[in-house]
Design goal:
The protein is an alpha+beta fold and about 350 residues long. The chain has a domain at about 190-330: Extracellular Endonuclease, subunit A (Extracellular Endonuclease, Chain A). It is built from eight helices and 13 strands. The strands form four sheets. A seven-stranded antiparallel beta sheet has the order 5-6-7-10-11-12-13, with helices on one face. It has a two-stranded antiparallel sheet with strand order 1-2. The chain has a two-stranded antiparallel sheet with strand order 3-4.
Length: about 350
């Protein structure tokens, strides 16, 4: 094992310990422990007092009591009960636990795919697995199938996403944990807020993220020449999230020699484009024709992975005097000033 692989292995050990216990250890520390308690059915480790005690002599010999007066015994017969030592019953989180699904009665014309479509994120293969049946097994009218609750699926997906996001954060930050490990930055935000590529056209700099969205535009404006418009780029701006009332607007207008590339276009509310945004551009034009220097910094703000910004932050300096507008990409282009 190379030194790099050894460091990575130790970091993974530290990460695994954090997930199971909430305790942090340095990436160079190794956790060593022995747990004599095992589940008799699947052989997995359990909490103290759950399952069966396998000490040095095996079996339940010399098993320490799970609580005063108690013994190390198997699980409670009730699936909803708390473990005898007060720890939660982990079976409660299984997909086949009665609290996590309802029974669906198959009707004429039903297929696993049609039934699974009733739940977001559930596939026919998932449904077949939960009901312990082959994926291609024909359904019978009146047959009862376990159908997970949407809240259960959502909770599982959220937990998985947090673990994946935490692992990615540690992998890209030298093994360090985020400020709040219980609520790490989403994987989506980590990917979209890094690895931007800069494109420079006509003297203007555009920073573009991994899904081809402009994230920052920095420009010292020029009064012409008027650039040729790209009708295709205007028509496709913001797809597939473009709205019927949108224009294909420019971050840097053609009158300032703004480029015709797709990254200089965005889905812009028609009234905002032809109202408040144009009025701001008119001020810039007036300043340029008065011999003044105009430098602008534009930051589109997106929701999730949407291609349509819902706000536009614009900062500009005219001969060093700064102004700021926070535009809503909605009708009338409402704004906040400072």
């Amino acid at each position: 094992m190379t030194e790099r692989e050894s460091i990575r292995s130790n970091r993974e050990t530290a990460f695994s310990l954090y997930l199971r216990t909430g305790r942090r250890i340095g990436p160079d520390a190794i956790e060593v422990k022995f747990n004599p308690w095992h589940d008799e059915e699947n052989g997995r480790f359990t909490f103290r007092g759950q399952g069966r005690y396998f000490g040095a002599t095996g079996g339940n010999a010399n098993a320490p009591p799970s609580r005063p007066g108690g013994t190390g015994v198997a699980r409670s017969s009730s699936p909803l009960a708390t473990r005898r030592n007060g720890a939660p019953d982990r079976d409660r989180f299984r997909a086949d636990h009665p609290a996590n699904h309802s029974l669906y009665m198959v009707k004429q014309g039903d297929t696993l795919s049609r039934i699974a479509a009733q739940r977001q994120g559930l596939t026919a293969a998932d449904l077949a697995w939960l009901n312990n049946m082959p994926l291609d097994q024909p359904l019978q009218i009146g047959q009862r199938l376990k159908l997970p609750h949407q809240t259960y699926l959502d909770a599982g997906r959220a937990a998985k996403n947090k673990v994946v996001a935490l692992a990615h954060y540690m992998d890209t930050h030298g093994g360090d944990l985020p400020p709040d490990p219980a609520d790490p930055p989403s994987l989506e935000s980590q990917l979209l807020n890094s690895n931007w590529q800069r494109e420079v056209r006509n003297g203007y700099a555009f920073d573009i993220d991994v899904i081809a969205r402009p994230r920052e535009i920095i420009a010292e404006l020029t009064d012409g020449p008027i650039a040729k418009r790209s009708r295709q780029a205007q028509a496709q701006a913001g797809q597939p999230d473009r709205r019927p009332g949108d224009d294909g607007g420019h971050f840097i207008a053609a009158r300032f020699n703004g480029p015709g590339d797709s990254f200089n276009h965005f889905a812009q509310d028609r009234n905002f484009n032809r109202g408040a945004y144009r009025a701001m551009e008119d001020r810039w034009t007036q300043a340029l024709r008065g011999g003044k220097k105009v430098v602008v910094h534009i930051v589109p703000v997106y929701e999730g992975a949407s291609k349509r910004p819902y706000r536009i932050h614009v900062t500009w300096r005219i001969n060093g005097v700064e102004e700021f507008r926070d535009f809503s990409n909605e009708r009338k282009g409402r704004r906040h000033e400072r």
